[in-house]
Amino acid sequence: MASDLNKLGLAEARDALRKGTVTSVELTEACLSAIETSDALNAFVHKTPEIALERARAADARIKAGDAPAMCGLPIGIKDLFCTQGVPSQAGSRILEGFLPQYESTVSQQLADAGAVMLGKLNMDEFAMGSSNETSVYGAAVSPWRRSESETALTPGGSSGGSAAAVAADLCLAATGTDTGGSIRQPAAFTGTVGIKPTYGRCSRWGVVAFASSLDQAGPMTKSVRDAAIMLGAMAGHDPKDSTSMDIPVPDFEAMLTGDIKGKKIGIPKEYRIEGTPDEIETLWADGAAMLKAAGAEIVDISLPHTKYALPAYYVIAPAEASSNLARYDGVRYGHRATLEAGDGITEMYEKTRAEGFGHEVQRRVMIGTYVLSAGFYDAYYNRARKVRTLIKKDFEDAFAQGVDAILTPATPSSAFGLGEMGQTDPVQMYLNDVFTVTVNLAGLPGIAVPAGLDHQGLPLGLQLIGRPWEEGDLLNTAYALEQAAGFVAKPGKWW
Ligand SMILES: NC(=O)C[C@H](N)C(=O)O
Question: According to its UniProt record, which residues of this chain constitute the active site (predicted)?
């Protein structure tokens, strides 16, 4: 038993801890030894075993004293985008090489305060820009899943690819992710895990390296919907240090998981029927709707007419904000600085540092962002994209005004692809991964990916549920009903 403790989810481990049948040190040691033999997955990029064991011992003492908060003693991984005090926090980029934050992000601090045990930092696309983890300075994280009878290395998705791979491979009980255009939900769908992007403003962005500030949200990546409810409760809450964080009470999400969705109205948006989507994803979507109906929900066809403009609008707004946010990496105060030659001035220092420190995808986004914000093009691109964003938000508001409680869509347009198989010559091919997820970020809504089936290659497929703002509890409950009905239990066979 003891060697399999890393396979537990948060809820099971929490219950075992409280019953006293297991200790946090045992759970932590099981995860640390799973991590030790997981180099082929390249999921953990900075390991913190000493911190982990110290926190585990403290958690065991708290449990013994009868003072066990929500995440007490539960070992988790933290995406490299979160600043963790004194622990490398590189956002997957060379430009943050050697950066040791002097402070802790609010979310990772809240998790620590709730007793969670940090095992280390998880791989990700550079500055969260990507859908395959291939833009990471550490090299891509690798999915524990493989196509049947094939040894091709598959992507765990991105940008939270290390988090998804680590949770799916049982290297940790759960992990943090962040989602700007799909970075929690797409990797969750690719790896048979659960990922929720909460309402914009639900989790503090303070200390989370900024990519596109009006879209970025942190959220949990877990083995079940119940675990997502537990962990989101610990991550969420008002933070005066983030001016976009909202002062709205955080309910007990787990207590809202009744599985009762009788009378709930679930919208099926016709604009999400996209040409080229594989039949098995269309079938999964229809099956998901049938399962929710069988559980007592009412299924209604809805229209979100501006959906097709979402992806182009996102790929204007996100780079625009990124170009501004990334201007701070100049080689002066922290991170990487290029070696200079005699005669080089400050301009050469910036140029060389940024050319060396940023990878190609990040450079592309900085250039696109600078272009769409430039004097002559601001109205044509950036302002237009902002107007489109308002229309997309209104589409959802209209649907909710008609009484729709949640919207069901596929999470991704395909199952996981092979590393090196996508976007090599055309970056837009990679951007299409976000076609079902970016609308949710543009509208600031909560969205969750739930594993719902396997494709013909034996790879996981996920469905997405989109909810009303601030109603994550209700959304999690609908996701819980879907999870129960879908009964997804597949795990990747161990090859690493
Ligand atoms: N950060 C994200 O949500 C990932 C998205 N695919 C992007 O590259 O922008």
Answer: 79, 159, 183
